[in-house]
Amino acid sequence: MNELAARTSGSVHVIGAGLLGASVGLGLREHGVDVTIEDLSPTTVALAADYGAGRPRSAADDPPALVVVATPPDVVADVIERALASYPEAVVTDVASVKLAPFRELTRRGVDLTRYVGSHPMAGRERGGAIMARADLFTARPWVICRDHETPAAALALVESVALDLGGVLIEMTPEEHDRSVGLVSHLPQVVSSLLAARLEPASDQAIGLTGAGLRDTTRIAASDPELWVQILGANRAPVVELLDAFAADVADFAEALRDPERAGAKRRIADLLSAGNRGVARIPGKHGSSERFTTITVLVDDRPGQIARLLTELGELGINMEDLRLEHSPGAQIGFAEIAVLPEVAERALSDLAERGWRTL
User: Fold this and answer.
1) Structural domain of 298
2) Closest by alpha carbon to 14, among 36, 34, 30, 42?
3) How far is CA 112 from the centre of its chain?
4) Order of strands across the sheet with 295-302?
5) Cα separation of the two ends of the chain
6) 170 within 8 A of 145, measured Cβ to Cβ
7) How many domains does the chain have?
8) Where are the beta strands (DSSP E) in the chain?
9) Any idea where the ACT domain is (predicted)?
10) Cα 170 to Cα 185: distance, rounded to the nearest angstrom
11) Rg of the chain over CA atoms, in angstroms?
12) How far apart are CA 35 and CA 25, in angstroms?
C-alpha cells in the first residue's frame, strides 16, 4: 500500500461498518492510520476487514483518539452516548445525514457533548454495505462540520483532519442550517425521484421501452434503500414536509395552468414555472464547484470493445477537454450514445473534427 502522509493523529475507531463506515476506514488506511471497526453484525465486521477497512477491535487495543459513528439514523444518538462513555478521552463524531434530531435527543438526556462534533459527508451510493465501500467516496465532496462555541479547538481539528485526509471539502453549519439544507438538496430530491419512479410500476412494457436519458436522470436515486430513507426522512420530517408542501403547491399550480392552456395567462404561468427551473439548475455548482455551463455533443458509438477508449483517445489528440461523460444505449440496437460535455467555445470544432475522423454525431 502506498501510504500518503496523514493529517489525522492517533488511531480511529469506526462504529458501523456499512458503506460510509467502511469507506472512512478504507480512506484512512490509505494514509496509514490505524483503524479499528465495530458493528452489531460480526459478518459485516469480517467483510469490512477483508476489504481492508480496518481490523476488529480487541480489549488489548489502546483507546482511540477519535470515534466515528456510522450507524443508521434511528440509533445514532444511542451509539454516540455509548461511545462518549466508553472512550472518555476520545473525540466522537458521526456521519449521519441528519444532525439536529440526535443533538436534541442527547441534550435532552443531559449528555456532556464537549467531546462530540457532529459532521456529515455529502457522499453516498444508491446501494449500501461494506461491499460497496470506496476509499475515494468522499473525494471533493462537501463535508459539513457542526460545532458550537463549547467545542474544543483540538476536537474540531481532529475531525477536520479526518475529513481532509478523506478528500472532503470542509463546510461549517449549525445543525439547523444543515438539516434545512440537506432537506432541499438531498431529501426532497429523493422523495420526488421515488414518487416519479413509482409511476413506472403500472406502465406497459411498450411505454418503458421508450425510456431515455431524461427519465434515467430523474429516477436514478429512486433505487436507494427504502428502510434507510424511512429513518432519514422521519428524523428530518419538519424541513422535508415544508418543502414537500411548497413543491406540491407548484405541481398543483402547474397542473391547473396546463388543464386549460388556452385560458388567459395559462401559457405564461407554465413558462414562468419552467423558467424558474432554468434559473434554479443554473445555480447548481458544476466542475470544480463553478457555475460554468457546458455544451453537450452526442457521438454515436458502435457497441464493440474498445470504441469508447478510441473516442476518448481521439478527443485528447484533438485537444478537446472532456468536462463530463454519460453513456446511453439504444434499446434493441447495437449502438450507444456518448454524451460529452465540452466548453461552448469548442463544441462546433469538436463536432467538425470528430466527423472528419469518421465519427457520427448528433
Assistant:
1) 289-361
2) 36
3) 31
4) 324-329, 335-342, 295-302, 360-361
5) 45
6) yes
7) 3
8) 12-15, 35-38, 55-56, 66-69, 91-94, 116-121, 142-146, 169-172, 295-302, 324-329, 335-342, 360-361
9) 296-362
10) 17
11) 24
12) 6
In a domain, 4, yes or no: no
Bridge pairing between strands 335-342 and 324-329: antiparallel
- Same domain flag for 333 and 275: no
CA distance 316 to 306: 16
Q: What is the CATH number of the domain that holds 337?
A: 3.30.70.260
Cα–Cα distance measured from residue 114 to residue 6, given in angstroms and rounded to the nearest whole number:
25
Distance CA 131, CA 43 (A): 12
Q: Locate 336 and state its grid cell.
A: 450507444
Contact 258, 305 (CB under 8 A): no
- Would the pTM of this model clear 0.90, i.e. be above it? no
